[in-house]
Amino acid sequence: MVRSDIIRGHLDAIILRLISEKDRYGYEISQEISLRTNNRFQIKEATLYAVFQRLEKKDIIEAYYGDVSHGGKRKYYRITPLGKAYLSELVKEWSAVKEIIDLFMEGLE
Amino acid sequence: MKRIKNHIDELFKDIPHNHETEMVKQEIIENLEEKVFYLMEQGKEQEDAIHKAIVEFGDMEDLKKELGVKEPAKKSMAKLNLEFSIWGSGLIIAVFIFMNLYYTPHTIWAIYPIFAILWWPLSMYFVWSRKKWSE
């Protein structure tokens, strides 16, 4: 299990990536993250909803109610045009960060 | 499923009650129930599934930060000041124009007090826009 405080700063990017593929709801996203990372990283639900709130307030994602599941109506999220622009900024930023960190981490055991 | 709801109610107890937090709460309960159903499909006992869902939920600190802080009260103050100054100065300007036109229609003097009064809404506009920029 990876230390979650290192990933923390990139949660926006992870979640936006998943929403940009298709509209998704909360549990689906947390499940998808565990699945893709092979359980090496699991997002806490409480954190996930905090990110939703923040991104929705900034108009990066928007919510709508979809089909009914076991309990009630699922709340789906879709990415906005602003969100797409934000995501592509995050991608650029990440590749810059990765290069910098690699400068110091590569070649060591 | 009652236990999920009770647990979330407990976590939300010191968060202000309003439409927004209620919606978030419903969403969380809905998704946690879905998780419990999923875990049961995987062969877990209901008791275990509920327990796992609650444990994995994590702590509320981030959510509290998103939901707890309410800022509109301060923001609307600058706007209110601006609106009041516009209406107030508008009325005073109207009075000056009326007096000027009614009593001394051949001498224009109202422009001087109008110019002075315009500083009021202008300064309020400045305060308002500075606030908007700093947000």
From TrEMBL, chain A:
Span of domain Transcription regulator PadR N-terminal: 15-88
Entries under InterPro entries matching the protein: Metal_resp_DNA-bind_regulator, Tscrpt_reg_PadR_N, WH-like_DNA-bd_sf, WH_DNA-bd_sf
One Pfam family, short name: PadR
Signal peptide start-end: none
PANTHER family found in the cross-reference section: PADR-FAMILY TRANSCRIPTIONAL REGULATOR (PTHR33169), TRANSCRIPTIONAL REGULATOR RV3488 (PTHR33169:SF14)
Name of the protein this chain belongs to: PadR family transcriptional regulator
Originating species: Lysinibacillus macroides
TrEMBL record, chain B:
InterPro entries assigned: Perm_prefix_1 (IPR047928)
Superkingdom as given in the UniProt entry: Bacteria
Entry keywords, A to Z: Membrane, Transmembrane, Transmembrane helix
Transmembrane region(s): 84-103, 109-128
NCBIfam families registered for this protein in UniProt: perm_prefix_1 (NF038403)
Descriptive protein name: 2TM domain-containing protein
